[in-house]
C-alpha cells in the first residue's frame, strides 16, 4: 500500500468501515511510514475537536444564493435543451431521415447526368401536357359555340312552326 491510497482510506479507517484485510494493510503501512502516522494523529485530533467547535450561522445572502442554485441550473438546462442532443433524439429521427432522403434525391436530380436528363424529360412532358390542355380548352370553346348555334337554330325552327314562343320576342 502507498501513501496516496492511505490518504484516501484514512477517513474510512477512522470510522471503522474498512474490510479486515484492507484494514491490516493500512495498519502495516501506518506502522512503517511516519508521515502517514502523523497524518492519522492529526486527523484524529481534528475529529476529536470537531464537536467542540461553535456552530456558525451562515449569512442570509449565502442561504438565498444556495437556494437559487437549482433554479438557475434548471433554467440553463432549459435554455440549452434545443442543442445537439435534441437533433439526435429518437423523436426527431424520422424528420432527419426524411430530410436526408430529400437531400439525396435533390442531389441525384441536380448533380448527376441521369438526373439532368430526367429534368429535361420532365420539362418536355410538362410542356406537352400544357399544350394538350390548351388544345382541349380550344376544342371545348369551339364545341360550346357549335352547341349555341344548334340551340339558336332549333329555337328558331320551333318559333317558325309556332310550337315555342321565346321571351326575347
From TrEMBL:
Signal peptide stretch: none
TM region(s), chain numbering: 91-111
Keyword Transmembrane helix assigned: yes
Pfam families cross-referenced by the UniProt entry: zf-HC2
Key word Endoplasmic reticulum present: no
Domain spans labelled Putative zinc-finger: 3-37
Gene3D superfamilies named in the record: Anti-sigma factor, zinc-finger domain
Keyword line: Membrane, Transmembrane, Transmembrane helix
Superkingdom of the organism of origin: Bacteria
Record protein name field: Putative zinc-finger domain-containing protein
Organism for this UniProt entry: Candidatus Saccharicenans subterraneus
Upper lineage: Bacteria, Candidatus Aminicenantota, Candidatus Aminicenantia, Candidatus Aminicenantales, Candidatus Saccharicenantaceae
